Amino acid sequence: MLISVRQLERYWAVRPKGVLHVGAHEAEELADYQAAKWTPVLWVEGLPDKAAELQKRFRGTANQSAISAVAWDSDGESLTMWRTNNEQSSSALPLGTHLVEHPEVRVIEELSVQSSRLDTLLQGSAHRFDFINLDIQGAELRALQGLGDRIRDLRWIYCEVNKKPLYVGAHLVSEIDAYLAPFDFRRVDTYMTPHGWGDALYVRADAVPALPRLRSATRRFVTWAMKSRAGRQLSNIIR
Fold first, then answer.
1. If I label 166, which of 62, 137, 159, 226 is the partner at 20 to 30 A Cα–Cα?
2. Predicted TM-score (pTM) of this structure
3. C-alpha Rg value of the chain to the nearest Å
4. Which residues contact 205 (CB under 8 A, 6 or more apart)?
């Protein structure tokens, strides 16, 4: 996550009662979620073998569970999962400008998979997840559309966004903005990389904290301070 759990809590008052994490990979965020006491967490992973590893890992664990599924805007659609050599760039969409931005990443396997809507996956679940983390390489809008009315359970949406078509058929951040606006979600924070992709936080209007611009500016300063030499020197003087 380019915007850390700690920053989400500190600057945007994000304190979910349940987390739906789509694009789990190896559950790299688990320690951060646990430190912040963000539970329960339902992990959704599109690579079947990775999902199986998580299911084994979380067996008998309270408040952690995993599902093998490719989140989409339809159920039962035949898709190809493009596994990459770094695995984290694996997607149900073929590589686009990603080939130029990250030439070291390449497809090593094509898997036949079936799509699933998130509202279908959540049927029968009594828990109402109010935070979703979407990290599915260009398919984020499709997954949001697959939530149906369950999107109204959410207060916070954290997702990977693109300003370039890194994946063929990927929706850009402006399209996600447009889709979420009627549901009263505002994009309050965005962290973009030089490669045309990044992370964004959307907050439902009634959950936006006071002084959002100041919070965003402070968060950006802290991030800059942690990453730049000049910033670290300045932050040391301030302390």
1. 226
2. 0.88
3. 18
4. 184, 185, 186
